[in-house]
Each structure stands twice: as structure tokens, then as C-alpha cells.
């Protein structure tokens, strides 16, 4: 299984999902290749935002650097999870029609979806926004792992 998390800059939300889901899969010994990317390339090469790292002190962000979504990602990944509707729409615009089934919102795996549908962009806000981002993503990542394990059993 290969999962790609996508936000706008790939420095706040999707690196948080990348780091949290990577740790969860490692803890539960679930084999999964995980990466993250941005629909924008404007932060390419940058490490995650220090505010994201501060909001998830028990999680390692080692080796995570911003990179843009690439055309081949739609082929290479099984599941491509957008943080919000703008980024989902942009992915849908770029993705070949026969691969559109791979595109989803991360919060589809949150128990309170669709009351919580989008992970809000925290970039221009304060620390509380980053805390909310971490919470939404951590809960959705637990749901995602339960779902992937169940899907594996029925294979
Ligand atoms: P992200 O947050 O999409 O969660 O990485 C953002 C990072 C940078 C910008 C916007 C959102 N920006 O406008 O530079």
C-alpha cells in the first residue's frame, strides 16, 4: 500500500499527516509506503513549519521536505488524500480520469466526517490552529489505518 498526503505548501498539514501516519504504521507494524506533497511548489525543499513540529512533539518529522505533486504520483500511489476541498479539486483537475478513484479527502476517515470535512489551512493563524490540525489529522489517521487493515483482510 502506498499513501500520499497532499496539501497546498507541503510544510504544515500534509507533513503532519505524513509523520503521524508513518509513526502509527511503524508502531502497529503495518507495511505502508508514505509520502506527502504540495499542489504548490513554492516551498519546495523546505522542512516542515516549526509550528507544526511544535504541535506534535511526540512525532518525528525526520527526512520530510516539501515537494510538489508530480504527474507520476497518480500512477505510483494507491491512495491520494487531500487536506481540503481546494486541494482535492486541484488534484482532480490534474489526475487522469481512470485514476480519479484514488483521490479522497483525509477526513473521510475521521469518525465525525462529514461534520469535519476539511483540515483548515493553519499557515496565517496561531498555535491553536496548528493544534486543531494535529488533532484532526491524528484521529483521521487512526481511522485510515483501521480501514486499510480491514481492506487487507478481505483481499
Ligand atoms: P500547508 O500550509 O498547505 O498546510 O502546507 C500552507 C503553507 C504555505 C502557504 C499556505 C498554506 N503559503 O501560502 O505560503
List keywords for this structure.
binds 4-nitrophenyl phosphate, 4 strands, alpha/beta, 5 helices
Can you put this structure into words, describing what you see?
With 155 residues, the protein is of the alpha/beta class. The chain has one domain: Response regulator (Rossmann fold), CATH 3.40.50. Helix content is 40%, strand content 12%. The protein contains five helices and four strands. Helix 1 (13-27) crosses helix 5 (127-153). The longest helix is centred in the last third of the chain and has 27 residues, at 127-153. The protein is globular. The two termini are 12 Å apart. The model has no long low-confidence stretch (mean pLDDT 97). The chain binds 4-nitrophenyl phosphate. 4-nitrophenyl phosphate (4NP) binds next to loops.
